[in-house]
Specification:
The chain has 150 residues and is an alpha+beta fold. It contains 2 helices and 9 strands. The radius of gyration is 23 Å and the shape is elongated. It has one domain.
């Protein structure tokens, strides 16, 4: 007669320990991967805004100030770029992101709002803790990032 084979308690404990070690390693890596994906949205939109500003500058010989929009920095959830509340300056440069966004955007240009240089700023609260992630891009293509999650 054949004997039924089964796992011993020690074998099961070893498997559980190995799985917990793998999860401990994998979860932080996955969180960093998610953060990079969220930051990629800002990088893409900053480049698109830069292109819109350059076209506007070619037509009008100056850059224009664009106030923070959406006016409230999005929390961990994404929001729509609401057409009814878009300031005229954003319409003037022709920028409108597709779908929902995790960041608010603004353009700071010369002291009077119109100038020969600009800084595009993206602000977002990626994890909903009230601490903003800020990414800036200037007219020379220099990008700076202050991301508390990294």
């Amino acid at each position: 007669m054949r004997r039924a084979r089964s796992f011993t308690l020690i074998e099961l404990m070893v498997v559980v320990a190995l799985i917990s070690i793998l999860v401990t390693i994998a979860v932080p890596n996955y969180q960093r991967f998610q953060l990079r994906a969220k930051v990629a949205e800002a990088n893409h939109n900053l480049g698109a805004i830069r292109g819109c500003l350059e076209v506007y500058e070619m037509e009008n010989e100056s850059y224009v100030l664009c106030t923070l929009h959406p006016a409230t920095v999005p929390s961990a959830a994404r929001v729509f770029w609401e057409d009814t509340a878009v300031p005229q300056s954003w319409i003037d440069i022709g920028f409108k992101p597709v779908g929902q966004i995790r960041y608010s955007y603004e353009v700071q240009a010369g002291a009077s709002g119109i100038g020969t240089s600009y800084i595009i700023i993206a602000r977002g609260d990626l994890d909903g803790d009230g601490v903003e992630s800020v990414i800036q891009l200037d007219q020379n293509g220099n990008m700076t990032s202050a991301n508390p999650l990294e």
